[in-house]
């Protein structure tokens, strides 16, 4: 059967059409008639007819052979009569019978192709080129796609008119039978970008077979963005779902032109009434030339196959998509084409993809987690065990896309038991850095967990019963649910090495008694430091110290930490007396323990200072004095022969240990049996025990004074720890024989006749005719029956009738004259006797009266033959006449000679001296001058007049007149110009 065809579908004006007629009679003649289709006559709207003949093997047959085939040509008119017309071609034989027919056009040619990527699985690896552009429908034999992928499409536009403006409308099915089909447009390489179908070639929109190549106008590539679609958020109005979860397609999607175009733009997305079909119009200006082989452009884009993962609201929700539709729901068509606003005929340009070629998406992945390394806190190699807080466990997490769709929104978090989840760091696998886990990718993550002290303490065992350090990584994606993987550091690899160290030290010793020794009463201040030297926290820590009573419990000590516990112990006297248990020190041991360890102890030794010592202090008391004195050296106190002498022995434990069986003895006396003697059968006085600082007084009263220096020694002795402890002390006194005493002012007041210068008044005469004066002389009380001697009262150097009777105070040699070196003051006899008889009130009202009365009595004693006691009368005379050093008190001095005639200015009728009275608290009476004061001179003179001064001899026979027995040595030095200040503070003289 004959057939006729053209070498192209569409031609431009002036282009040559090659016509081929086959299966005809050999050598036959045939007529070719070309007529405008009445329904599409072209731009001139006139039905034109064009005819010509050709003979097989003859005229008009291009191959020149009679072979049953004629190849001939026809040129499209250039006058526009066939422009944009559909041309019907008929071939008739010589009988007029039509043997074959076909159609071609002189107009823009537009076709749509879809990419057939071959049957599943990808077959390119077999060597078969199954991946081609198909100008027709596709099923599972020619393509395999997954939900979420985009089908590449291309429109081939041929025979374009230079500078013409074109508008191509593309339409696609969005919903079919309440199931999603193609939900939006994408770039043509949305899916075929070299990663999703790695075994298949990249999609090339400009690839043609030689027979189908339309001839591109140029190699230019231009793009225009695909507009967003609000219906993607509302489910195309069908209420099937809330809309695409991401809101818009991922990435920037675009139409791509190949060829010479300009002025690219698009309309918005529009829909039919029931929103089941959507369309977009793409506008462009063709800028290429005309011609049979270079007047075409290619427009490429993609159609996204709806995915249930995009359109479901919740994990697990089932949404109907195109794979659930029977038939071929994936329709993409060229709906309309205009050239400069005029509609061009397109014919049926619709391509469909069978649902059988779409595999429902099966998103899936696996996650694995392993321990990659264990590091020390300083990042050095930690080996295979965890043994300290701060160790770092390095994990590697692997997420592998095992499904058939790319996964977006990938998240990986890491959760160590007992902590909060943390995001990990991706370290590799995203080969194209698009943040999409593609089906060909495996992503790796790394995370580090820093081991806590709790992990070490519990060996990773928590309240839920798990052991070891459990680390769970969880991955999730927009397309799947979460999955988890655990990596465990087993409890067996977590080393627990509890260790406790105790260190007991002596912080200080408080020297309570300040003696610089460690002994009774001192406080030992201990410190116990308990340290955790292991790698686990120590709980239930206890510290026990029996000596101090320390008992610490329920303490907790962190790793590497320590705690100090203070305690004290007060040394007892028993500790000291027992020599610290025999080794001379205080031994103390403290023990620490914990729930995790065994006990550990540490001891500390504090040496004791044992200082056994005693002191004996032997005191003496003479003349019935109220107080004992410590007279360690000669001469000691002075007393008169035969007077009582008492001794007191004070034995004191001056050491720090208790002493026992102390014997007290004396060089001169037997002390055995005295009051308090612990054992009278032994020699000496026995003291059973004597504690430190304790003392015992022993009184010996069975002694009388002897003449001369007396020294005896007391001894106290015992033993301690085999060593002798003893002490000795001397006691001294000096015994005097009684000498001549001065006579008191009272005596002279009662015996005025003994110093009135009148021999006829010498006292009573007894029956034997003896006067009292003679008796007193016979008894050695008086040396003269009348001791008032004549004196040179007017100081003319002679004693005669011009002189008055009286007492010349200061007359040391009692010759009545003021001799060189003497200081004297004269008291008329009437004044002197009036002063001797002065009342106590008169005496106390003016200290000059007191001193004058003393001095008059002393001078009468000197006249009576008693030697002046070391110039004492001279000091009294100096004070009474305000002579140096007693001349510094002005009007309140002791001067009784106010007119300077060396005669006391005393009014016997009024009993007062001229001048200002001296009171007991006045400076002239109390202030020391050259070691003496008026009151001291008074006391010394009064001692002499009252027989409290002695004459006699010391052991060397030296004359010592004018000293009391207690002060004889000191007072005896006065004649050697020793300061009279030595009188101060001596036995109450001041």
TrEMBL record:
Segments of skewed composition (Polar residues) = 594-603
> Which segments constitute the DUF7507 domain?
384-477, 498-598, 638-725
Write down the InterPro entries for this protein, in alphabetical order.
Answer: Chlamydia_OmcB, DUF11_rpt, DUF7507
Span list, region Disordered = 113-136, 576-605
> Which NCBIfam families is this protein grouped with?
B_ant_repeat
The name this protein goes by in its record: DUF7507 domain-containing protein
Q: Which organism is it from?
A: Candidatus Nitrospira nitrosa
């Amino acid at each position: 059967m004959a057939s006729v065809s053209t070498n192209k579908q569409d031609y431009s004006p002036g282009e040559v059409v090659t016509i081929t007629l086959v299966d005809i009679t050999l050598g036959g003649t045939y007529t070719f008639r070309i007529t405008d289709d009445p329904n599409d006559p072209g731009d001139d709207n006139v039905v034109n007819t064009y005819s010509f003949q050709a003979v097989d093997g003859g005229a008009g047959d291009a191959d020149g052979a009679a072979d049953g085939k004629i190849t001939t040509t026809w040129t499209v008119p250039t006058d526009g009569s066939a422009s944009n017309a559909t041309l019907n071609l008929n071939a008739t034989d010589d009988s007029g019978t039509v043997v074959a027919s076909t159609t071609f056009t002189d107009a823009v040619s537009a076709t749509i192709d879809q990419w057939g990527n071959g049957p599943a699985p990808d077959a390119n690896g077999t060597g078969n080129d199954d991946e081609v552009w198909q100008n027709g429908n596709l099923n599972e034999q020619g393509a395999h796609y997954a939900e979420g992928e985009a089908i590449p499409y291309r429109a081939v536009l041929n025979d374009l008119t230079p500078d013409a403006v074109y508008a191509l409308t593309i339409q696609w099915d969005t919903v079919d039978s309440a199931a999603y089909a193609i939900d939006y447009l994408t770039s043509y390489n949305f899916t075929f970008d070299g990663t999703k179908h790695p075994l298949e070639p990249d999609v090339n929109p400009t690839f043609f077979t030689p027979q189908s190549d339309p001839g591109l106008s140029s190699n230019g590539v231009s793009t225009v963005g695909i507009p967003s679609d609000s219906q993607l958020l509302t489910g195309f109005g069908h209420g099937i779902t809330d809309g695409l979860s991401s809101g818009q397609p991922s990435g920037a999607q675009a139409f791509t032109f190949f060829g010479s175009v300009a002025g690219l733009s698009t309309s918005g997305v529009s829909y039919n009434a029931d929103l089941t079909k959507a369309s977009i119009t793409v506008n462009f200006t063709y800028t290429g030339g005309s011609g049979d082989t270079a007047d075409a452009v290619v427009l490429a884009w993609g159609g996204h196959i709806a995915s249930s993962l995009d359109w479901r609201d919740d994990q697990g929700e089932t949404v109907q998509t195109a794979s659930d539709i029977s038939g071929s729901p994936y329709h993409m068509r060229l709906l309309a084409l205009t050239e400069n606003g005029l509609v061009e005929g397109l014919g049926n340009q619709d391509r469909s993809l069978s649902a059988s070629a779409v595999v429902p998406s099966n998103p899936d992945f696996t996650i694995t987690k392993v321990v990659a390394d264990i590091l020390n806190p300083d990042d050095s190699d930690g080996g295979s065990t965890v043994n300290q807080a701060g160790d770092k466990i390095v994990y590697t997490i692997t997420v592998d896309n095992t499904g058939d769709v790319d996964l977006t929104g990938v998240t990986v978090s890491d959760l160590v038991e007992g902590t909060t989840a943390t995001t990990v760091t991706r370290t590799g696998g995203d080969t194209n850095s698009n943040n999409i886990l593609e089906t060909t990718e495996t992503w790796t993550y790394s995370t580090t967990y820093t081991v806590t002290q709790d992990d070490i303490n519990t060996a990773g065992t928590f309240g839920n019963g798990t052991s070891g350090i459990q680390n769970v990584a969880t991955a999730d994606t927009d397309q799947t649910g979460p999955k988890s993987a655990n990596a465990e550091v087993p409890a067996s690899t977590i080393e627990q090495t509890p260790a406790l160290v105790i260190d007991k030290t002596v912080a200080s010793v408080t020297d309570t008694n300040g003696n610089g020794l460690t002994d009774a009463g001192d406080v030992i201040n201990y410190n116990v430091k308990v340290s955790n030297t292991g790698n686990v926290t120590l709980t239930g820590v206890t510290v026990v110290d029996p000596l101090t009573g320390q008992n610490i419990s329920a303490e907790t000590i962190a790793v590497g930490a320590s705690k100090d516990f203070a305690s004290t112990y007060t040394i007892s006297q028993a500790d000291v007396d027992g020599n610290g248990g025999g080794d001379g020190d205080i031994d103390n041991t403290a023990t620490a323990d914990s729930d995790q360890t065994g006990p550990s102890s540490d001891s500390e030794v504090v040496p004791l200072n044992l200082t056994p010592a005693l002191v004996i202090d032997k005191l003496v008391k003479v003349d019935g004095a109220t107080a004992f004195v410590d007279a360690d050296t000669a001469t000691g106190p002075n007393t008169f022969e035969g007077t009582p002498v008492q001794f007191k022995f004070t034995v004191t434990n001056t050491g720090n240990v208790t002493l026992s069986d102390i014997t007290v003895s004396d060089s001169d006396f037997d002390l055995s049996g005295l009051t308090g003697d612990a054992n009278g059968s032994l020699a000496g006085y026995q003291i059973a025990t004597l504690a430190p600082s304790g003392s015992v007084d022993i009184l010996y009263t069975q002694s009388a004074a002897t003449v001369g220096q007396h020294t005896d020694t007391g001894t106290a002795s015992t033993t301690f720890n085999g060593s002798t402890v003893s002490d000795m002390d001397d006691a001294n006194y000096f015994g005097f024989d009684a000498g001549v005493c001065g006579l008191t002012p009272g005596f002279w007041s009662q015996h005025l006749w003994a110093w009135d210068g009148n021999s006829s008044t010498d006292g009573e005469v007894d029956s034997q005719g003896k006067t009292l004066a003679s008796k007193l002389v016979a008894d050695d009380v008086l040396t003269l029956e009348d001791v008032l001697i004549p004196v040179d009262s007017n100081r003319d150097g002679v004693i005669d009738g011009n002189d008055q009777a009286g007492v010349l105070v200061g007359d040391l040699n009692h010759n009545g004259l003021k001799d060189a070196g003497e200081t004297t003051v004269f008291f008329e006899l009437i004044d002197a006797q009036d002063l001797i008889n002065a009342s106590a009130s008169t005496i106390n009202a003016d200290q000059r009266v007191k001193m004058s009365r003393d001095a008059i009595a002393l001078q009468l004693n000197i006249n009576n033959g008693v030697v002046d006691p070391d110039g004492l009368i001279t000091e009294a005379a100096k004070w009474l006449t305000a002579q140096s050093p007693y001349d510094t008190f002005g009007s309140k001095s002791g001067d009784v000679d106010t007119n300077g005639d060396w005669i006391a200015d005393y009014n016997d009728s009024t009993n007062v001296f001229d001048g200002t009275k001296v009171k007991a608290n006045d400076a002239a009476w109390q202030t020391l001058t050259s070691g003496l004061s008026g009151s001291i001179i008074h006391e010394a003179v009064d001692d002499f007049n009252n027989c409290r001064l002695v004459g006699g001899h010391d052991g060397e026979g030296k004359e010592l007149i004018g000293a009391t027995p207690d002060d004889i040595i000191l007072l005896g030095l006065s004649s050697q110009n020793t300061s009279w200040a030595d009188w101060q503070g001596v036995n109450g003289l001041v």
